[in-house]
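Example record used in the benchmark description.
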Amino acid sequence: MIEQIIRETTLKKESRQVLLDRIQGKRISLIDAFDIYTKTPLSVLGAVADYITQKIHNNKVYYNRNFHLEPTNICVYDCSFCSYSRKEGQQGSWDLSIEDMLEKVKQNASATEVHIVGGVHPERDVFYYADFLAKIKGLRPDIHVKAFTAVEIEFMSSKAGVEINEGLSILKKAGLNSIPGGGAEIFNDTIRETLCGRKANSKTWLKVHKHAHLNAIPSNATILYGHVENVEHRIQHLDKIRNLQDETGGFNAFIPLKYKHKDNFLSHLKELSLIEDLRMMAFCRLFLDNIPNLKAYWPMYGKETAYLMLSFGANDMDGTIEDSTRIYSMAGSEEQNPVLSVSEIVSELQRMGKKAVERDSLYNEL
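Model output (structure tokens):
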């Protein structure tokens, strides 16, 4: 069936063969990637992505019970796409105490994961955050701590006068179990100069994640798309992720993140359409042949779009969140108070004919 769909497309013969090879497990090259991304009809791209996803996951869709802690939105950087960050004392800024955050840990007793990211506070170093993680583990030794983007880790290590590798070791000893994929943005340093010129560059992001993997700290990876980059930049970004995964095998999941344009310096840009979002997700499934899990991050896309993406290559709905993140609500997401109950996830997936599977943070089924 899928072979017939591919053969009947209007694609040139060479591109049809690339798709036929892909469903047999062959890798899409950088040379072929642009035509596959831009010229494959969305219905065909989605069908191929869904076919590959079903071969890997057999109709299972994962979710977990998690909540976010965002210690502060006070940040040393001024990223042009960011609606979240503030300077100290600026209206809308916050800076939670460790005691306040530990109280939130107590309130989320059913969660199996805490996800910790925030602004890059100018005065906080790796020892401050290690103390925080140790106190979380003191309360909940069993909880998985997924914490700090590569950008945060690079800054807090430098602030403490230690190398990135040592900073990761300090955090791991304190209770860090994995790191999220944020801060990747787009791996083109000319564009990064426009978006976030002062913060960690592409090479540093990849270095942090490589060091994490070599220290047995798994991580996720992301891309921020739909701003001033183009399709070639997206493909090059994915290629660097794929290459590092070939080297280390340390990425658990990949998460495409869409630029949202409310209340930031790029607000004049029009957001990409749903069609382009689906195309992006489907292409990620085809290209990232060595990362089995793709998240449809519903606090950013919205629930309806996230469910739709499960037919375009995604296999993971992320978590319940419990109205604990403001990063995308402040940027204009339709999910202004992001909460998704387990019963809602399970019932909607059953309605779609999917099998809802609760997982832990490392994709072990619970």
